[in-house]
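FORM 7B - TANDEM STRUCTURE REPORT

SECTION 1: FIRST PROTEIN
SEQUENCE AND TOKENS:
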Amino acid sequence: MSDNDEAQIRAWINGDGDDDDGARTIERLRTDPDFRRALLSEAWFEDAMVREIMARALRETLPAGRAPADLGWWRRHALKAAIFMVGICLLTYLTTQHPAPTVTLGSISDVLATVHILEGDADIHRYAAANNRSEPISGTADLHAGDAVTTRAGSRATYRLPNDAAIMELSPLTTLRLDSAGDPGRLELTVGSLTANVTPRPIGIPLRFSTPHAEATVLGTQLKLSVDAETTRLAVIHGRVALANHSAVSIKVGSGESAQVHGDHMIREQT
């Protein structure tokens, strides 16, 4: 089969050829046995294509009303329907057997974290208290939704989530706030720095640290996060963290790597 014949047939199948090309192709298929055999022997033709051409040729040569059923159409659409039904069944199975993880929000009275002062003093800003009042602490205290801990100069504190899901050490002059809606997997570091050891999280429920410039999404790792007036810095000791700025630009920071966010600029560094 010549290249010209092949090009004409491909154009006809794709609907790009004109009516005369189609009529000539149909006539050759009907009257030229050698052409038909050459067509059937071409490796580039899939069986479905050959059946379609043959069906078209037969429909053109039979009287009206006697055209054979377009089995190619039924095969194509039956396959699509079967794929669709398999997809629906698989989705139903996955959602019933493995439902998507959900985050249980704590009430204002639930203890979402505890803080223990290792050295010096710190203050707690109680979200539920009138005028967001603060109270000094020098030992251990429970924290509720929206509460913030601020370490004073020269002080350090250990910050724990329930079941030791994350253990953090707050450096001096650091403020860490719990989510005001009670999401136990979201913390806000507004100033200062912390070092965190995060146990592996359930799939779909990461631990998120937000700062004035960025958000770090953690699935289970050791990291150091620090914030000043213009920059957020992240260093990953072990594991992997997704760091995104407020323009939704995100990078993955792996073990031994660090990155910083300054405005819209994200800079990756080797530690």
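SECTION 2: SECOND PROTEIN
SEQUENCE AND TOKENS:
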Amino acid sequence: MKPNREYYNLDFEFWANIKLLNQRIGYTRRKSKMYPNGGFVIPTMQEVKEVFDKEGLRISKLIRNDKFTDFGNLVISYMSYRAELLTSKVASNLMNQASAKELLGLRLFLWKMKKVLFSFPTRRGFVERENYIIFSLHKIPR
């Protein structure tokens, strides 16, 4: 992935606000009667105010006169961008439980076959050699 230039060189204050809001509000919401769609959290102005009030922090950098400041809009736009990116691009590349088990089973099988196919007997026991293809026909499972 390539970084988004809009959020690439932002200062620690920006990332501290993102982290604070994520830790206190959460990253995602489960599907429920209150949130029927669930999904990633994009905080409302009221939620941001509550977090900063509970922490005893000044909100003037994010909200002024009941409107988000430019900095506040940047924070909210990043959270929206991240939610959209994870939903549209990343989620389609994730596996469900059945496909993950299938892939793991295939990898384990191939790993076991490699052990069988790429080892040969010596006086000290079986030695693995990954650089040489030596087939021990008596060890191949039938």
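SECTION 3: OBSERVATIONS ON SECOND PROTEIN
Residues 74 and 128 are 56 Å apart (CA to CA).
The chain has a mean pLDDT of 79.

SECTION 4: SIGNATURE
Preparer initials: ____
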